[in-house]
Write a structure and sequence with these properties.
Elements lengths: L5 E7 L8 H8 L4 E9 L7 H9 L3 E4 L9 H16 L4 E5 L6 H9 L3 E6 L5 H5 L3 E4 L26 H14 L6 E2 H11 L13 H8 L2 E6 L8 E6 L1
Parallel strand pairs: 1-2, 1-4, 2-3, 4-5, 5-6
Antiparallel strand pairs: 7-9, 8-9
Helix pairs in contact: 6-7
Length: about 240
């Protein structure tokens, strides 16, 4: 993905924790340039108090949205209206929707229909419909340690690492088959791209690995081969099902 895309980052303060904001913004720069950064919430409510000190540090513009009716989330409507305004403004080529709320599923789908790159960031409790509506979905838990309580503030806690399942291994195997040559070898970059299309929330960091190659190597069910790259000093990595 090109890092030259101008991105709009829209954050739902009501449905996302304030922890790991710095790591989250660094993650977004992998996919584009976050030229617009807005966060939506009722800033008169104490539940969003933790966000206030982080806004200036990360150059995020707060958008006030009062809760007009008890039990109803007005933040969703404000974010959706702004997203559509930005879509038609032509100022951005991609969006990062930061929320764990499935109400943004249709918005993500609509933005992708318009040719926008859509990155989702949310907690692991995020419903599947919103996840699969995005080009890529990143769990905020893997971006750094969660906010510590008073008793553990001096300790850095590592995010919980998932155990890779048979279903995940099957996804890798089928993706290799889909892009392999006649000898069964597939370029690792093509495998990673296809896996991402099939399952937007697949991320090697969920399993404790920074990259896809060491994750696949750790499983022990694949052959990995490095080949010379005539255009670069970096070698090409190919993988094959055993």
């Amino acid at each position: 993905m090109s890092t030259t895309k101008n991105m709009a980052v829209l954050i739902d303060a009501d449905n996302i924790p304030s922890a790991n904001v710095k790591e989250m913004m660094e993650e977004i720069t992998k996919y584009g340039n976050p030229t617009i950064k807005r966060i939506y919430g009722d800033w008169t409510h104490p539940r969003v108090k933790k966000w206030k000190n982080l806004l200036l540090e990360n150059a995020i513009t707060p958008v006030q949205q009062y809760a007009y009716t008890v039990g109803k989330n007005a933040t969703d409507s404000a974010m959706i209206i702004d997203a559509m305004d930005l879509l038609y403004s032509g100022k951005v080529e991609g969006f990062c929707l930061v929320s764990s709320d499935s109400d943004f599923t249709r918005l993500a789908t609509r933005l992708r229909e318009a040719g926008m790159l859509v990155i989702g960031i949310g907690e692991k409790k995020t419903p599947d419909p919103f996840i699969v509506a995005c080009d890529k979905f990143i769990y905020i838990e893997i971006l750094g340690s969660q906010e510590e309580d008073k008793e553990t503030r001096t300790k850095r806690r590592k995010p919980k690492v998932d155990k890779i399942s048979k279903r995940d291994i099957g996804l890798i195997k089928s993706s290799i088959r889909d892009v392999s040559d006649d000898d069964g070898w597939a370029f690792m970059g093509d495998v990673g791209s296809l896996i991402q299309k099939k399952r937007p929330n697949f991320d090697s960091r969920n399993y404790g690995f920074d990259k896809l190659t060491p994750l696949i190597k750790s499983i022990g069910q694949f052959d990995i081969e490095q080949r010379e790259n005539p255009k670069s000093r970096h070698k090409l990595i190919f993988v094959k099902n055993k």
